[in-house]
Predict the 3D structure of the following.
Amino acid sequence: MVNGIQTLLPHGYCLSWQADLLLLHVVSDSLIALAYFSIPVTLWVFVRRRTDLGFRQIFVMFGVFILACGITHVMDVWTLWHPDFWLDGWLRLFTAGVSAVTAWLAWRMVPVALALPSPESMRQANEELHAEIVRRRQYEDELQALNDRMKLQIDELESLSYAISHDVRGPLRHIEGFARILADSSAISPDHPALKYLVRIRASVHHLSEIVEGLLAFSHASRSEMRRVSCDPKALIEEVLTELGPEMEGRPIEVRVGKLPAVSADPALLYQAFYNLLANSVKYTRGRDPAVISIDCVSDSANEHVFRIRDNGAGFDMQYADKLFGVFQRLHHVSEFEGTGIGLANVRRIVERHGGRIWADGQVGIGATFFISLPCQPDTVTGTAGPLSSGEPGDAPAFA
Amino acid sequence: MPQRLRDILVVDDNDNDVELMLLSLSTLKLANTIVVARDGVEGLDYLYRRGRFAARTDEHPLFVLLDLNMPRMGGISMLTEMRRDEGLRTVPVVVMTSSREDPDLRRCYEQGINAYVVKPVDFDQFSRTVANLGIFWALVNEPPPRR
């Protein structure tokens, strides 16, 4: 072992201490080191400010890696004059370790980074979103316009029924009144055929007046504000039967009312629906001995109640069942059974406004069965009201 | 000296309605004069003794039978004018109309009518209704004191 060999020589020795060569290495390594040291600072500032940034770990590792690389270049300058190659070596080993870990981490990052949306795709997504917003706004505007038009139409309908109510009833009353006065006057002898015509005029006026009332009720059922409360159908039906009393008087009619669950409905409208259905049953069972009308609930599921109104009256031909619920649609001649053809249309409108359905089953000469379903909506039940309760504050009078 | 009976004022633009109303009232054989005004303007002319009623010297009518839909001035406007006037505020007003649409009904009561009657289409009912009104307001009801 020779002593001299063990003494390490500074790196400058290898460069033969040539001043220009030394200068080239010193300047280059120093610049590299400075640049490398600045990068972790930049990263640090960037990571600090971008608080939303993911993958912080890789930024830290990258900072340490660059810092370590910078130190090796500082050591390159240092070892030109000072032969601390052991220190230099350990620092390089440290750098190697950090580099390897960083390289490994970077490799592992590739699929994750690839999955990240590129700024371009982000921009596209943004644009699509923006377009969607514009489209939605357009829909909203269209919807608003439709809504406004509908409101206008409702207003028009309202003024129309107001006009009907005012202007059609008047002339009807006048025709009726003067026909009556004429019939009573002494100008026409009691056996004159003109008297019969006067009776017909009055009957026609009464029929027309019923149509007007029916149409008004129909328009009312369509546009009136719904006030849903928990109603007892049995109580409503009892009210209806009282109202129909005069028509049922002296007739052999048996009315069976089964157990009926409470429903969430507008009491005035539901009353009208039951009224029309039961009035029909009473009308079409004329001549039956006994007439049997039954009302019960056939399905009481969690979703809906199905009520059934059955009679043993004239019935109808199922072939024409689709005509049952149309306005002015009739399956019987006025000479057999009087009527306007609005009642069942009205019932359908009322049931549909409650979110329910109506259908019927019939056989000529045997009877008719009507079904109405009403959805259960316990969340809309706000209070309990008896039939046609009109004592609540803010209640509008209910006109059928 | 007995005081002259108060008039009954009918405010209605429709000849047919007026005629049917007068016919129905005539069955009562009331001694009161029935005055007909054709719209709210004429009705107020009568009450304020203006226009063709300028020469009128008697008092306010016993009651007013008022239609709602009339040209120039409708029943509700006339009613509003009447209720604003100290002297006319107490004159009983019975609204007789074809309509029973909610807004009319509510507005009339808000303006302080004394009764609201829907004219029935059936003449027998109409006649009975008018006669009952005549009996009640001319004979049964005690009118506000004379001024």
The radius of gyration of chain A is 47 Å. DSSP finds eleven helices and eight strands in chain A.
